[in-house]
Each structure stands twice: as structure tokens, then as C-alpha cells.
Design goal:
Order of helices and strands of chain B: HEEEEEEEEEEEEEEEEE
Shape of chain A: globular
Helix content of chain A: under 10%
Order of helices and strands of chain A: HEEEEEEEEEEEEEEEEEEEEEE
Radius of gyration of chain B: 18 Å
Strand order of the largest sheet of chain B: 2-12-9-14-5-16
Number of strands of chain B: 17
Largest interface: A-B, 51 and 60 residues
Number of domains of chain A: 1
Structural class of chain A: mainly beta
Largest sheet of chain B: 6 strands, antiparallel, barrel
Number of helices of chain B: 1
Oligomer: heterodimer
Distance between the termini of chain B: 7 Å
Largest sheet of chain A: 6 strands, antiparallel, barrel
Structural class of chain B: mainly beta
Number of domains of chain B: 1
Helix content of chain B: under 10%
């Protein structure tokens, strides 16, 4: 019988069937501000501090291994030293990597097969929609790289939220010839699309002398308003939203590279030495 | 848990009838601690040296519910996370001789949560160097424990940094056996290297969290039991309240304020 009451959440927590972990995030570097060609939304990603060396080694939030049942979040808190920042707690699933220093089909897909699946409203193995993110792992030089979510010459670039194969026409352009490492942007999709189930290919139409990026799919866990040194504890029960499942989805086949991370909207500055706390309770059988 | 937490009115009535229990806590700066790593808890953890022992209460009063706890470091510990918790000493390892002894309590206690008696298990299992280790080069620490469901002889394995300094703590949660989330008891500890020092295994039941914004500042993230969703653990006479900080190695003063209401 799954947990249905606040009392049960607290009793299971007291019995030690849960997850409570203080998190000290790494310090990310300042991203390059987004422009018209890059969705006008500057983002910064951050990962668990000990074990991460940004942007190459990204540590997941350490959690108890192989819990027998699902987690339900009770609350989470986040904070950072930057001002006026909206910060979200997210799951990131790695689609693959893209070489921005050469033209043509430059996307290498992760070995796992997408879409990511999870149980939704009691129905098992449902495909979920992800927001595609570009995370610069090697700074670009010389020219601002540009690309289209398609196969060079025409063909499926992504699978949209409804499962349709899309041969895109919209160009994404990095905001500067020198786009800084750790910059992050939401990829541009075709009109009417709000997310993707998979990325198939990326056609780089303008290459830099250098540049490379990870392509991640973002699944929202929860948001925390954050202004300067203050943060809010998001109590998912009192908030009326109900406990969010704090367990990542799984790949269709293979094992997806997945990380719990925070993403902050930013104009230019970094996420600095932020901390936080995540509390979840294991669902009952 | 009795009637004091049934409503805000009951809390106020208890304060009016029994008076509150108020404690101010100050820990003078102690030495810098040893940072954790991916084989020793993932989050740097400090146990403050001093603790508070819950006093004896009047007739008919069963314990204290702490409705407000505020904590802040006095030094440059920007964005350190502080925790006040009921602390239960479950085991002691004397490194010299690799000798284990049971702790001050037999196991984690039972607590009444929302009207139901619960055998607790700690979601914050931690090992602390209560005296600095010597001669211990990246020692492997093996802990045998009883898990949250009562399964005995479970094993957690950590590799500690070389010679952890006094008050350095290491969270065991990421290193518990597969499927485990907490511990009720610790039945053995052994270490692969070391000539001196003491490691104690504790189980914590959190009372409140706080996030420091820098020197002597409280960031307004205090998670007291009423606005948060944590269970209200009743602190009983002779329970130990300990203070932990996560995320910083720096030496610092530490202050805390606690406001407790008697339960019946």
C-alpha cells in the first residue's frame, strides 16, 4: 500500500526508510550570456561538489544504492551566493556529445536507447519529454558555432514530445565566437514543440576552430526561489503539489548516464559554492 | 508524543503552564577538520565538540519538542549546512589494538511519531574521529550494523582520508549495503591501519537544519519541525543533542539557540 498520508511519510522517515543528505554543490564558472540565436536564456548547471570536476566529471548526488522501492521527496533546499536566481532541481539524462569544431553530422549518441521511461499515473514504462540542453565542455574559438537538429542534407534530428520524427529547420547559434566552457542553453525546437524524447543527429553548419558540448535532456524535479543568500525550503507536501518521485527514469535499453543537478537561470554569473539539503522517504510496498 | 503537538494552542498552553526550555549554545573555534572524499561520505562533516544533555522534567512531562532551533557559524563558513540532532552513540573503535566496544546506548530508541510507536533508525549514520587518528594512511573502515528493517550483520565499507583530525565526521549513507537506507545499531567496527585515535559511530535523529550565509549569519533556511515536513522527535531526559556542520573544513566558532516546549 503506497504512502498516502503525511503521518505515514513522517513515520517511515523516523523508521530510517528514507534519504536525507546535505549537498554541497561545486562552484561553476560564469557562462556566456545567451542571445537571440540561443534562446535568450542563460543557464548554469551545477553538480555535487566532492567528486565533480566541471565540466568533464559530473558527480551524481550520492544516494543509497539500489533502494527496493521508489523515493518520494519531502523537501529540498538550495542556495547559492549569486543574487536573484531561479534555481531548479533536475534530473539530467545524457543524449550524447557534439563536436562544434567541424561541420556536418557531428553528434555522437550515448549508447543507451531513448526515450527515457518511467511510471506515470500508475502506467509503467511511459516515455517522458525532456528539455534539451547544450552544455559547453570545450570553449569555442574563432567563430560562433551554429547547427540544426537534422541529418546533414535532410533527415530526423530529434523525436518530439509526441513521438514524431522531426527534420528541423531552425538554426541554433552559440552566442559568441568565444563561448565559455560550462555555458548552458536550451536548444531551439520547431514551432509547436515543447520538448524531446530523443536527439538523433546534429548538423553543424558553422564550426569554430575549437568547441565541444554535451547534450543533456532535463527533467524537472522541483523549483526553489532563490535570491542572494536566502533560499526557501520547498515542502512538497504543504505546497499542495504532492510528493515528487525522486527516482530517475530508465533508458529504453541500456543504461542512461543520469545525474541529479541544479540549473539556475543567470545573466552571466556563476553558481557559487551553493549548498542544500534533500529529504525523501521510501514509498511503502 | 502527548498532547503538546496536537495544535499551536496546545503548544502555547504548555509554554504557559510548564515554561519553555531555552538553551543558548556556543562552541569556541576548534581546529580545521579533514575533508571527506568519494570513499568517505562525499560531504565534509564536522561534529561540534560540545553537546547539550536534555534535563530532567517535571512530573507528568515526557520530553521536549523543539519548536525553534537557530544555528550559525562564527567564522568564514559560507554556505555550510548546520544540523541539530538527537545523537545516539552506537559503537566505539579504539584504533590502537583495533578494539571495538558497544556505545553508550544499546541501539536506536523507539519514538512516538504521530501517535504510533516507531523503532527508529538513523538516516544520518555517521562515524566521527573523537580523537585524531595517527599512523592511519588511507585506512579501510569496515562497519557491521543492523539496518533499518532489523537485518543484522550488514556491512558498510569506507576508506578514510589519512589521519583524520579530531571532530572530523564521515557520513555512512552512501556506503551502506545495497538496499539499505539507515542503521538501528552498530555491532562491530574494524580498521586496516592506524596506531592511535578513536572512532565513534553515531545514529542521528534530526531536529532542525540551518544554512549559514557567511560569518555569523543565518540564511533564513532554518527547517524547524512546524514549517518543515520532518517528524517531531521528542527529546527525552538524558538524550544528547549534538550539532553538526556539513560542507566546510574551516575552524570556526558556532552558536545556536534552542526553544523547547514540554510534552506530556
Amino acid at each position: 500500500m503506497p504512502i498516502t498520508t503525511r503521518n505515514e511519510l513522517q513515520q517511515e522517515f523516523a523508521a530510517g526508510r528514507g534519504f536525507l543528505f546535505p549537498v554541497k554543490w561545486a562552484t561553476s564558472s560564469a557562462p556566456t550570456a545567451a542571445g537571440n540565436g540561443s534562446n535568450n536564456l542563460t543557464l548554469a548547471l551545477d553538480f555535487h561538489g566532492i567528486g565533480s570536476t566541471l565540466p568533464g566529471t559530473l558527480q551524481d548526488i550520492p544516494r543509497p544504492a539500489s533502494p527496493p522501492r521508489d523515493w518520494l521527496t519531502q523537501l529540498y533546499t538550495l542556495a547559492n551566493t549569486s543574487t536573484s536566481r531561479g534555481v531548479c532541481l533536475v534530473w539530467l539524462y545524457k543524449f550524447g556529445t557534439v563536436n562544434l569544431a567541424a561541420t556536418g553530422n557531428q553528434f555522437t549518441h550515448n549508447a543507451a536507447t531513448f526515450p527515457i521511461l518511467r511510471t506515470r499515473y500508475g502506467a509503467a514504462s511511459q516515455p517522458i519529454t525532456l528539455i534539451p540542453l547544450l552544455y559547453i565542455t570545450t570553449a569555442t574559438t574563432s567563430s560562433a558555432p551554429a547547427f540544426i537538429l537534422q541529418v546533414n542534407g535532410g533527415g530526423t534530428g530529434y523525436v518530439d514530445q509526441d513521438g514524431n520524427n522531426v527534420d528541423a529547420a531552425t538554426t541554433f547559434t552559440c552566442p559568441a565566437a568565444a563561448t565559455a566552457v560550462q555555458s548552458c542553453y536550451a536548444l531551439r525546437l520547431e514551432a509547436g514543440d515543447c520538448g524531446v524524447r530523443d536527439i538523433s543527429q546534429i548538423d553543424v553548419t558553422t564550426a569554430g576552430m575549437a568547441g565541444a558540448a554535451d547534450v543533456w535532456g532535463m527533467e524537472f524535479i522541483g523549483g526553489v526561489g532563490n535570491s542572494g543568500p536566502f533560499s526557501l525550503a520547498t515542502d512538497v507536501v504543504f505546497a499542495g503539489l504532492g510528493p515528487v518521485h525522486f527516482t530517475p527514469g530508465v533508458a529504453t535499453t541500456g543504461t542512461a548516464v543520469v545525474r541529479a543537478a541544479i540549473v539556475g537561470g543567470s545573466t552571466a554569473s556563476a553558481l557559487s559554492t551553493p549548498g542544500g539539503l534533500i529529504v525523501a522517504t521510501m514509498n511503502t510496498a | 508524543m502527548g498532547s503538546a503537538f496536537n495544535s499551536i494552542d496546545d503548544l502555547l498552553a504548555s509554554v504557559a503552564t510548564n515554561g519553555p526550555v531555552v538553551r543558548n549554545f556556543f562552541q569556541r573555534s576548534t581546529a580545521a577538520i579533514t575533508a571527506a572524499n568519494t570513499t568517505s561520505g562525499y560531504v565534509t562533516t564536522r561534529r561540534q565538540l560540545s553537546t547539550i544533555t536534555v534535563p530532567s522534567l517535571g512530573a507528568g512531562l515526557t520530553g521536549l519538542i523543539f519548536t525553534t532551533i537557530r544555528m550559525a557559524p562564527g567564522g568564514s563558513n559560507s554556505y555550510a549546512i548546520s544540523c541539530a540532532a538527537l545523537e545516539y552513540e552506537l559503537g566505539v573503535l579504539t584504533v590502537s589494538g583495533n578494539s571495538f566496544a558497544a556505545g553508550a546506548v544499546a541501539s536506536m530508541p523507539t519514538k512516538t511519531i504521530r501517535g504510533t510507536s516507531i523503532q527508529t533508525a538513523s538516516l544520518l549514520p555517521v562515524v566521527v574521529a573523537t580523537t585524531a587518528l595517527g599512523g592511519a594512511t588511507t585506512p579501510a573502515l569496515t562497519i557491521t550494523y543492523t539496518d533499518q528493517d532489523g537485518n543484522a550483520s550488514q556491512t558498510a565499507s569506507l576508506t578514510l582520508p589519512t589521519n583524520p583530525t579530531i571532530n572530523s565526521g564521515f557520513l555512512v549513507t552512501p556506503h551502506l549495503a545495497s538496499g539499505d537506507t539507515g542503521w538501528r545499531d552498530v555491532t562491530n567496527m574494524s580498521i586496516s591501519a592506524g596506531t592511535s585515535g578513536t572512532l565513534k559511530a553515531y545514529g542521528l535523529l534530526p531536529l532542525a537544519f540551518d544554512l549559514s550565509a557567511g560569518t555569523g549569519a543565518n540564511a533564513g533556511m532554518a527547517l524547524d519541525l512546524i514549517p518543515s515536513n520532518l517528524p517531531a522527535f521528542v527529546a527525552e531526559t538524558n538524550d544528547i543533542i549534538a550539532f553538526y556542520m556539513f560542507g566546510s573544513t574551516a575552524a570556526t566558532d558556532f552558536v545556536a539557540f534552542l526553544f523547547g516546549v514540554a510534552d506530556n
